[in-house]
Write a structure and sequence with these properties.
mainly alpha, 10 helices
Amino acid sequence: MQVRLKIGIDVFMTALLLCAMGYMLIGEETHEWIGCALFVLFAAHHILNRNWWKHLRCGKYAPVRIFQTGLNFLILLAMLGAMVSGVLLSRYVFDFDVTGLANFAHALHILSAYWGFALMSVHLGLHWGMLCGRLKKAIDKKKRPAWFVWLLRIAAFCIAAYGAVNIVRYDLFSYMFLQSHFVFFDAEQPVVLFLLDYAAIMGFWVWLTYYAQKLFNIFYQKGERKNEAHLCIGFLF
């Protein structure tokens, strides 16, 4: 039951995050309420995964665990930055006079939002293998022919390629590195198309992370085997 609740919260949080990225298209007031909902879901996510915090000092820190832990803390910083700056900039849900902090809050919000989006996509990519594993268990191997598996892989590659194009098209790196303090939105673009474009961008980060992790595991395991072989030779001689 708890696993389903975790998955449900993560799926809902991902959907809201996509919607929040198009704040000028969905309206500023709607954007603020979505931000509040994201804060509640983010808090619930950490409460449900509190065991992760309890075991931070336990066990060894292999390269993968170091990366995952660092990523989680960066996501936490990005979400806190987005929430604090969002409250300071709020004109509907909250009402603060932050005349002197407006420029700082605006810059922090852009940085936190776009880095948070990319980092959360990478986080999803790290767990994509687990989700695929659950899907494989749910579907009988005899009922999923090889051609269907390859079709899914080709579709995933196409989505990732389209996402990479959209990163350039929407000039996301200029926002992530504050080269631009103004986020451009095409007012005539339908919200649905915008969300699909950003879903593809998320798909690119997920795809890139998923396959980078697979490659790392292959080379890391080879390295471990070589070390074990050298140890065995050392013991023999």
